[in-house]
Amino acid sequence: MKEMQYTLRRVPPSVNEALRRKARQDGRSLNETALETLKRGMGMTEECTLYHDLDDLAGSWRKDPKCEKAIGVQDRVDPGIWK
């Protein structure tokens, strides 16, 4: 497939600064850094993303009767060991 050229407009100053900082830190061009960032954001890299929180999981729970039953077993109190 033929490579395309893009022109981005209205890039927020914070994004501009972050991209330029990352390019300097990595010793890469702004274009290389922007392309890699876009690829990563689109899930198109083989690189494993290290997450620092559980934001991607928030709100994703789906009720599953089998899972609920298995978890329910853990909620029972055994009177013989609970004193």
In short:
With 83 residues, the protein is an all-alpha fold. Helix content is 43%, strand content 0%. It has helices at 13-26, 30-41, 65-74.
Could you explain how this protein is built, in words?
With 83 residues, this protein is mostly helical. The chain has one domain (13-74). 43% of the residues lie in helices and 0% in strands. The chain has helices spanning 13-26, 30-41, 65-74. Helix 1 crosses helix 2. The longest helix has 14 residues, at 13-26.
Residues in helices, as a percent range: 40-55%
Extended strand count: 0
Radius of gyration (CA) equals 23 Å
Cα separation of the termini: 70 Å
How would you describe this structure in keywords?
single chain, 83 residues, mainly alpha, elongated
Outline the secondary-structure elements.
Elements: H1 13-26, H2 30-41, H3 65-74
